[in-house]
Amino acid sequence: MLNQSIKVYLVCTGVGNINRGIETFARECFDGLKGTEGLDIELFKGAGEEKYNEHRLWNLPRNGKIAPFLGKFIRRNGYVVEQLSSFLPFVKQIRKGKPDIIFYSDSNLGFQLYRWRKLIGVPYRLVFSNGGPCHPPFSRTDHVQQVAPFYRDLALQAGEPNCKHSLVPYGINVPPGMPLYEPETKLQARQKLGLPLDRPIVLSVGWISSQHKRMDYVVNEVAALPESRPHLVMLGHIDEHNSPPILRLAEQKLGKQGFTARSVPYPQVQNYYQAADIFVLGSLKEGFGRVYLEALIYGLPCIVHEHPVMRYVLKEQGIFTDLSQSGSLSQALAELLQQPRSPDAMSQRREYVRKHFSWERLAPAYFKMFCDCLKTSTFNLN
User: Fold this and answer.
1) Could you give the domains of the chain?
2) What is the distance, to the nearest Å, from the Cα of residue 347 to the centroid of all Cα atoms in its chain?
3) Which residue among 110, 283, 287, 303 has the highest number of C-beta atoms inside a 10 angstrom radius?
């Protein structure tokens, strides 16, 4: 088996339908790993153009009308319906192509692939990318990609076998060259986006909600800074239930001209990184946090919560403080705003990501993970 190319089916129905962490990871993972010697990888996505080794699976998208409606009958949400609706179309592709490994992040689809494997009749192995993260036991998959030591260690402490878990972080595309740091370039980026030109910009990227990303905390902490305070940009998913309270709070605390809240396609997010001065994220825990790497790529200093995962991802490039406490973020912002911007520091941040998390750096680790899965996991159709 290992003397020939390993056929990997990377499946993520959210690709083309929505842009969150696991969807952008799946998209970039396929692009980053294709062409790797010994690896034959194909992408199965929920929407978008079909290309060489890229296939569109029929599904009921979570952001449509039908999936949320059907979800009410099974007491689940539209996301689960999207996963379940793609199962039979994917089975057809599995029987046709007979992959060695199915690589996935969506556990609802993965559970079905595990449960019905004998009936499907193809002895594939399942590798679960645990970026969510999920917690042990991992009894319905063959191998687990742990993207941070914190969650790998939790699994091993719970009695999971070491050979079932590979510590392989998320990869990310790193543009060539250095970040753009000329003041004129930053002003031009702000003008194109309709952002203020006369004060620093603090950027936070994530679901605009009080849950997880704690955008309400970020708003309050920026509001605690004296006038003229930085302009806050919140970039991420805006929904009809969780986002309006955050927007009302921002208008009350910062004024209509003191903040910007937008939801934009993923390729446009880079424009906001280029326009910003500082990146913050209010979450107290993360499965990995690819947005940290995105911010570093564009040279931004990152203020984050003191947590083992954030330490692993950012190391010396992060500014760590206790974001569970009122006043911690505002103090860190005030101190950072007093420091001059350093082109050398901006370049070092991008080079740090290139050295540790670029696909060129990580492709061999992903290939080894697939090899280890085939060596250590057993499955018999009989």
Assistant:
1) 6-172+358-376 (3.40.50.2000), 183-357 (3.40.50.2000)
2) 23
3) 303
